[in-house]
Specification:
The protein is of the alpha+beta class. It has two helices and ten strands, in the order H-E-E-E-E-E-E-E-E-E-E-H. The strands form two sheets. Strands 2, 4, 5, 6, 9 and 10 form a six-stranded mixed sheet that branches. A four-stranded antiparallel sheet has the order 1-3-7-8, with no helix packed on it. Helix 1 packs antiparallel against helix 2. The two termini are 16 Å apart.
Length: 205
């Protein structure tokens, strides 16, 4: 009887860990980029599709506070980052998107916008400076936008990795890496299931 109770408890905990890990990877904000690396744009002005990383921000809830940051080689593009703004109760999301590209003279350009039926909710900055390198674009929604690094109040978050280069063929592709917390949850669940199977095999013997 004790063995069955222990096996049942272990199985329940493992399934809960797997479900939590899967939900952490799938729920809430989802940044979807159309390229992992793009070559530089040789002309002035806005770049054509071939030379841009276009990002759709799915799962954005305009009623919640939103923060974002863009880092190049681990360094924020602006000292004022992250940019944060409060939510607007009753607003309906229409579009949330971003666009990044670099001219071949090294100048970075980007646009980020969050627009609802009520009004434009977020920043739409255009940046300058050295544009080549690895980037991390992070967005998170929080109940406490005045304290953006208070993770206890985060509702959802996602990060997109990409590269702007003179020649992408000479650069290794940027790979997606799940959040460490999600990896721990999924790994713990799988390890627990292995232990459950071993325990059940012993009782059969």
């Amino acid at each position: 009887m004790n063995g069955r109770w222990l096996r049942g408890l272990l199985l329940g905990v493992c399934l809960a860990l797997l479900l939590c890990g899967g939900a952490a990877l799938a729920a809430g904000l989802n940044l979807v980029g159309d390229a992992e690396c793009v070559d530089c744009w040789r002309w002035q002005g806005d770049a054509s599709d071939k030379y841009r990383v276009d990002v759709d921000i799915d799962g954005w809830d305009p009623t919640l506070g939103t923060c974002l940051t863009v880092e190049r080689e681990g360094v924020p593009l602006f000292d004022a980052m992250p940019f944060c703004f409060p939510g607007f109760p009753g607003a309906d999301a229409v579009v949330a998107e971003a666009r990044f590209w670099a001219r071949c003279d090294g100048e970075l350009s980007f646009m980020i916008q969050f627009i609802s039926q009520a009004q434009e909710l977020g920043p739409a900055p255009s940046g300058g400076g050295q544009g080549f390198g690895n980037y991390a674009f992070s967005v998170w929604q929080t109940n406490d936008p005045d304290n953006p690094w208070n993770r206890a109040e985060w509702v959802s978050s996602d990060e997109l990795l990409f590269r702007l280069a003179k020649d992408c063929d000479a650069v290794e592709e940027v790979e997606f890496v799940p959040e460490p917390a999600s990896i721990v949850l999924l790994g713990s669940g799988l390890l627990g299931l292995s232990g459950y199977g071993a325990l059940r095999w012993r009782t059969r013997e």
